[in-house]
Fold this sequence. Notes:
The protein is α+β, with helices and mostly antiparallel strands.
Amino acid sequence: MKRFHRLTTKILIGGVILITLPMMVPAETLSQVLNGQTERTLLAQESQQRIDKVVEQTRKMEDRYRAALKEIDGLKIYNQLLELQIENQARVKVDLEQSILVASQINRNIVPVLVGMIDALDQFVQMDVPFLMEERTNRVNSLDELMQREDVTVAEKFRKVTEAYQIENDYGKTIETYKDTLEVDGKTLELDFLRIGRVSFLYQSVDGDVSGVWNQKTRSWENADDNRNGIKAGLKIAKKQVAPDLVILPVDSAEAI
Length: 257
């Protein structure tokens, strides 16, 4: 009986040992499994991060590619427009070359005409009623100087000559008065000159005692004391001191002018 008990005890103890050992082996394996799983999870996260980074880079490259394609399309359109502009400019260039050629021919032909116009204007001023002679003579002389300048275009010379003609033409339609000096009976007097177009050119001293009228036919001054009041009234009208009114003044005949 005692022997059986000891045997039983050994068996039980052995059984405990046998049972305990199998339970210790799965615990270590689970830890290893968990550690391995953690490592795989970390590796998977790192791989996913790399994949995400590659995807993001790919998207950026794709966006840049699309932007480049759009820019290329815009450049193609721009180049087409430039080609059209170049073609138009080529046509304009041909037209300009032809215009320059024609202009050169016109310039060669118009310069002698301008010179003749200036000479004619000079003769006209010298033969015309002698009002503002210094101003008008200087204008003609300035035209002569202008024609000799190389830095002035023919177009500008033409404009200046026609402008001088227009000024002379306007003199025939205007009334004006100005002060100047004139030798009368051996004395130099300061006078008020009155010009009515080109039909009447008169003067009167400041005190009103001396009056004269230009005779274009004889090209000389004549006494006009009989018209003292009319000249005085005409001077006031020209100076805009009084309203325009009918004034009786001596005039040259059309044949004399």
